[in-house]
Amino acid sequence: MIEAVDIYKSFEGTPILENVSATFKTGQTNLIIGQSGSGKTVFLKTLVGLHQPDSGSVFYDSRNFTTMPNNERIEARKEIGMLFQGSALFDSQTVEENVRFPLDVFTNKSLEERRDRVNACLKRVNIENANHLYPSEISGGMQKRVAIARAIALNPRYLFCDEPNSGLDPKTAIVIDELIQEITQEYNMTTIINTHDMNSVFAIGENIVFIFEGKKYWEGASEDIFHSDNKELNDFIFASKFFKTLKEHR
């Protein structure tokens, strides 16, 4: 479980996050949603430690990650998997080398052990016999699955995903959503997903945090959205004609 307590973050005197608190549960897909400029990306980066809050704390299973000494934070980072927007694979490395990267950096396992782990992770994301290929030689959907394999290579306790469906067609996006949810439950991870994809919200949104103008305006499950009287949330979720019609028929 990850807990954010009264997170305040500003840049050059301008508040970006104002006393945001939220709880992200283990074994569930936790989503952060909000319009562009709402502060959701800054919130995600603060949770993962890329930004230091001006005040407030982030707890990883009761450990204060915000005030953790640097040597302890380095060790804690080994428990974190990160799925970046656009996959962020190394173009000059093969599929195998990309997935093996965190194992090369953070473990002392033999090459054979690392390769076995790579193959296990690739098999888990339904990619086999592609070890020798380069990112430019595989599809966007396969690149995303390779990135997921890399993110779980160290068997993390926490998984952060930044816009995992960015650039994917709707069918492939569904596959990626389902894969992230399955792996979350299988590994019993605390998974936090930053997204603007409303299909993801309704398909895998077990716990949703809605950020508006730097503040938390709503928190709940996807099925509760249809019963929410939060104007800002409704304006955001049901901005399209499709979701307005969907709400009317619930």
Textual characterization of the structure:
- The chain is of the alpha/beta class and 250 residues long.
- It folds into two domains: 2-79 and 158-248, P-loop containing nucleotide triphosphate hydrolases (Rossmann fold); 91-155, no CATH class.
- 40% of the residues lie in helices and 24% in strands.
- It has helices at residues 40-48, 70-77, 95-106, 111-124, 140-151, 170-187, 198-204, 222-225, 231-237, 241-248; strands at residues 2-11, 14-24, 29-33, 55-60, 63-64, 80-83, 158-162, 190-194, 207-212, 215-220.
- It has a six-stranded mixed sheet.
- α3 runs parallel beside α5, α5 (140-151) packs parallel to α6 (170-187) and α6 (170-187) runs parallel beside α7.
